[in-house]
Amino acid sequence: MVDFRLSQNDTEILEQVRREGLAVRKHARYFDEHEEELPPEKFPEADAFPGVSERVNRRPAGDTPPATFQMLLGMARQWGDTLPLRQPPLALGNAALQAAGTPEQKQRWGATALSMAITEPGCGSDSKAIKTTARLDGEHWVINGEKIFVTTGIRAQGVVVWATVDAQRGRAGIKSFVVLKGTPGFEVTRKEKKLGIRASDTAALSFIDCRVPRDHLLGGDETVPRQGSGGFRGVMKTFNMTRPAVGAIGVGKARASLDFAEEALAGEGVAVDWERGRRARSTIEAKLVQMEADAEAASLTVLRAGWLADAGEENNVEASIAKAKGGEVSRTVPQGCIELLGAMGASREHLLEKWLRDGRITDIYEGTGQIQRLIIARAIFGYSSEELG
Amino acid sequence: MYSARVISFALSDSQKVARDTVREFARRELRDRARPCDEESRCPDELLEKSWALGLAAACIPEAYGGGGVEGGHTTSAIVLEELGYGCASLGAAVAAPMLFVRPLVDFGTEEQKRDYLPLFTGDRYHAATLALHEPRFTFDPCALETTAERRGANRVLRGEKRLVPMGARASHFLVLARGERGPGLANLEAFILPRDAPGLRVHDEGDTTIGFQAMSWGRLTLDGVEAPPAWKLGGDSGIDGRRLIASLRVGGAALAVGLSRAVLDACVPYAKERVAFGQAIAKKQAIAFMIADMRIEVDAMRWLVWKAASELEERGDATRAAAIAQDYVGRKAMKIADDGIQVFGGHGFIRDFPLELWFRNARLLTVHEGPAAV
Predict the structure, then answer these.
(1) Which domain holds residue B247?
(2) A275, A303, A383 ranked by CB distance to B185: nearest
(3) Does one domain contain both A119 and A199?
(4) HSE (CB half, 13 Å, CA atoms) of A5?
(5) Which residues of A are tagged catalytic?
(6) What is the pLDDT of residue B256?
(7) For residue A274, which residues of chain B lie inside 8 Å, CB to CB?
(8) Tally of domains in chain A
């Protein structure tokens, strides 16, 4: 049955996550202004909020299914601030490990925080153009290249790095490798300074004749050089789960901004009258309704992508729709909220201006809005990336 | 008490059957008729009769009154309206017009009113009855109706003008909305069941004509002191929930517009692949591909907003906000999609050999009419 309501238990879990978000907001400004510092693994307030993850794990089977609920959790977390109360133990590379790793690899590195290194100085969205190489030398892979924009690259214990084993073969030649910190030839060369999400560390990495054992190839190397293992497709599968999750981040930022703006406007005696028709609304009301609608629409596309995954159905197009809509509202809604509140809305006394800066990355990382539209259009037309690039 | 609630986009088996049946009907019966009916400003009787077999109105009438007995069914109505809108929003609204009368009767009617009027819609012939909301005023708003219903003894006397009444030309009964005694606002709305021959009610021979929806016959009513006995006041003393009624209309219009938008998308895809410019299908150019990708994105987003509002109506919650959101979002996006559809087709979008200009005109009216359909 079509339904958009939550169980009492799920409502309580999401409420708790939002309360955690409120608690962390008081630290948010400090780590925005002290980008050089890494936030602690957990803030003291975390102890006042025990066990949300246990509660998530214990959810009754009949409630909203897990992937859909993960989307709700993502929105609720981001409603607090981009800064988490507890640093998540794992990172994006772990999602790749889960999607493409062998059972043995998942066992070995399941608890190791792994970042993911794809982007290079010369390529971003066009990930098949990567120049980093991996050459088999006896029982080792030898990796050479430079990676940038690696999220949690400073904090993580290792990295899943994309490299080509055969540049002639284009994307079929691209494989991913687990490289742990401390491996000779692997160095963190820089920490980026950014517009927003400053509490999240972003690293540049260098690999110079960096040798890792053969079995560090994600998906196992018994099939090399056969196509498929740990390769482009395997890793791209990762993004069918993570794209909607990033969309959820955008929705969370939009929701937080709207709630802030609506509370501030209520203080000025301005509120939306939902009964009135579209032609009876003031300019401010009309803008608020529009942003509420945009945020709600984005939120539902994110839930839809999660729900399809739960139902075991293909969600490639819907994952991109969720990412595109989440990315869009992460830009338009915080911008619009400041537009409504005026100059004081842009003041650093409040977090709204920070959420605009934090949210701005959402339409860029894990595939820009334009890349999402390419994915959607190719699916609609039945085109390959060569036919529509 | 613990109650499990699940966020779900899953259609029930009966909803899938309803969707597929109406989709097939829309493809077979509405598409080819859309152009001639628009040009000739008519909605053929034989189409309305055929549509009756779908049982749209009967489906939301409880068994006790001879209907299909589906409880709620607002989501199903939204799904069905999308399919009708996909075939042709104008003819689809004509086919679904009796719902505008039946749904409020089922939701708010007294026992006696249900017994008197609902059986009109459970027979095997199309029966037209409708709802009169719009008034002849720029910036019309349902919160501020000018039609009044003053007390005269136990009766109420209705005065006002109603315009753009769906299928007004052939309706046997009109559900006329009037400003409540307590003043403006949706919560104060009152509704009166007027038979077509009620003294003081004038149904104009010439209906309204608009930029689109020309296949629909829009009625114009003048209420010149129509004396309504208590039995005609919908819901009797307890009246109606005007917020809920207007929400149902807002969602109904939005559902039709989702279907219209999906029709534009589905027309643009093959055209963009076939049309060659500068040695390449225009679908292979990002300027066109992105426009069509945006249509695909928004058709999804629009549909889920409509479903959410419909499901809130079904759960008998307050759907006012959800319906306003669906109306706002769908209104903006449907107009943009219909507009972009013409742009994808270029000059072919502008000539009447192709349906794009028709859909564009229909979208312009549909997204500003406050109640072309009900869920």
Answers:
(1) 242-366
(2) A275
(3) yes
(4) 16
(5) 366
(6) 98
(7) 320-321, 324
(8) 3
